[in-house]
Amino acid sequence: MASIFNISEMVSLALHSIIIIAVHTGQLVNVKKIAKKIGASEAHLAKVLQQLVKGGYISSVRGPKGGFALAKAPDDITLFAIYELFEGPIEIEGCPMNCQNCAFKSCILGKVPQKLNQEFLNYLNNHKVSDFLGELA
Q: Which domains does the chain have, with CATH numbers?
């Protein structure tokens, strides 16, 4: 089934993982536990988690009793910050199909893509990791 709105697998893994790590305050959470919880490949997830470490959002401890912990307070991490770490800046304006020379006088999609992008950006900016701490099943 096709979907109009789509988020990359890396961003999805990052967002879900950082919330799982945040829920386990004061504990190290290993890749295996996170991967099992979200149904992800451990190898792919490890790469995502390393990017979060490089971004300064989580810290890692190596070894058999190692794992990951938050490096910042959950209230200081917006979903936007995580999204931007993986995808770069969100562009609100411009052609949603990246056309350099449009054949039409005005976009056949109107301003809908810009409105949706702005709504998504607002959502990401207005929600923090701390907003989801009680949501883990």
A: 9-132 (1.10.10.10)
